[in-house]
Automatic annotation (TrEMBL):
Keywords noted in UniProt: Lyase, Magnesium, Metal-binding
Originating species: Alsobacter soli
A single MF term (Gene Ontology): lyase activity
Record GO biological process: oxaloacetate metabolic process
Keyword presence, Manganese: no
Residues at which Mg(2+) binds: 156, 183
Pfam name, any one: HpcH_HpaI
Record protein name field: CoA ester lyase
InterPro entries registered for this protein in UniProt: Aldolase/citrate-lyase_domain, Citrate_lyase_beta/mcl1/mcl2, Pyrv/PenolPyrv_kinase-like_dom, Pyrv_kinase-like_dom_sf
Organismal lineage: Bacteria, Pseudomonadati, Pseudomonadota, Alphaproteobacteria, Hyphomicrobiales
Length: 346
């Protein structure tokens, strides 16, 4: 293991100092765009006002004969758009693909100073992060990039899940992680063809009671992995995200999946279709009543110690911390969303 003092040293002479704390950003949804399509690129300036993160996808779902066009299209949209407070991310190709080296060298050379985060697919262990960390530092130094480009790993292989804690701790360049349920299902030989969400056959059946139909409760296929990812991220000061929800026609199930992830500690989710942007905003912005109650807890316990009763519910140091998580998030949301700022009274 590296010495703590070396952990925070730049990995190339002239590369920017790694962050010690993640920059505070609103990332309720990471909105995917296919950058090789000109019509899509034309809509990016409007999109950037609506979403928290615009991600140019270069990996899966981009046809093989459009890989170069997607990379160059991403560079073009990055140059042409003023992103303001909205994040600019790209999902590069996998580390074992023939495209990834050019993805990174071209993009950092052309728009390294605008790029916030590189999303890296199929991360198996800390060795993948170390490779990217070193390469990004060399490219940052070469192209005079002023702030570190962060790495966001997709957790989508059985080996990655096994190594999730080491991945989270691999570099100060780590931003966070997303669950990739489609590739993960394939890697684990799970018997589902769905992209995220539940499965009607994954269920618990109650004991039989004569004359009554047996009660059946569908269970959550992703609970274990999301919880494991959230713990690895939270322990290392990173953010956890739910990934894709593939059934665009089922808004209700998408909302339930996003909400389960939110309640377990995730900060946001991917949106692959415009209809999912509103769902992510609704789910990942804290609830108005919850924010108002959390504000009352903070007001009732100004220094966060002792115990008070509010509406018959006990509050102490621990609920004060829970309230602070909610109010801090509400403040970030309020800065971007005037309507919610009013509703939260912040
Ligand atoms: C996302 O990349 C997934 O495989 O689910
Ligand atoms: Mg995948």
């Amino acid at each position: 293991m590296k010495l703590a003092r070396n952990f925070y040293r730049p990995l190339a002479i002239g590369a920017p100092e790694p962050y010690r704390e993640l920059p505070v950003r609103l990332e309720r949804m990471i909105h995917f765009v296919p950058p090789h399509i000109e019509k899509v690129r034309a809509k990016v300036p409007d999109l950037a006002r609506d979403v928290d993160v615009v991600l140019g996808n270069l990996e899966d779902a981009i046809p093989l004969d459009a890989k170069e066009a997607a990379r160059e299209g991403f560079i073009a949209l990055a140059k042409a758009t003023d992103f303001g407070q909205t994040g600019l991310w790209t999902r590069i190709n996998a580390l074992n693909s023939p495209w990834v080296l050019d993805d990174l060298t071209r993009i950092v050379a052309e728009v390294g100073n605008k790029l916030d985060v590189v999303m890296a697919p199929k991360i198996e262990g800390p060795w993948d992060i170390h490779y990217l960390d070193q390469l990004l530092a060399q490219l940052e130094a070469k192209h005079q990039v002023c702030k570190p480009i962060l790495i966001h790993a997709i957790l989508e292989t059985a080996e990655g899940v096994k190594n999730v804690e080491a991945i989270a701790a691999a570099s100060p360049r780590m931003h966070g992680m997303s669950l990739g349920p489609a590739d993960l299902a394939a890697s684990r030989a799970m018997k589902t063809t769905r992209v995220g969400g539940g499965h009607p056959d994954y269920k618990v059946v109650a004991d039989p009671v004569e004359g009554q139909p047996r009660a059946i409760a569908q269970q959550d296929l992703w609970h274990y992995t999301i919880a494991k990812m959230v713990d690895a991220c939270a322990a290392n000061g990173l953010k956890a995200f739910y990934g894709p929800f593939g059934d665009f026609s089922d808004a209700e199930a998408c909302e339930a999946q996003f909400r389960n992830a939110f309640l377990l500690g995730c900060a946001g989710a991917w949106t692959l279709h415009p209809s999912q942007i509103g769902i992510a905003k609704k789910v990942y912005s804290p609830d108005v009543a919850e924010v108002k109650f959390a504000k009352r807890i903070l007001e009732a316990m100004p220094d966060g110690s002792g115990a008070v009763m509010l509406d018959g519910k006990m509050q102490d140091d621990a609920t004060w911390k829970q309230a602070k998580v909610i109010v801090d998030l509400a403040r970030i949301v309020a800065a971007k969303d005037p309507e919610l700022a009013k509703a939260y009274d912040l």
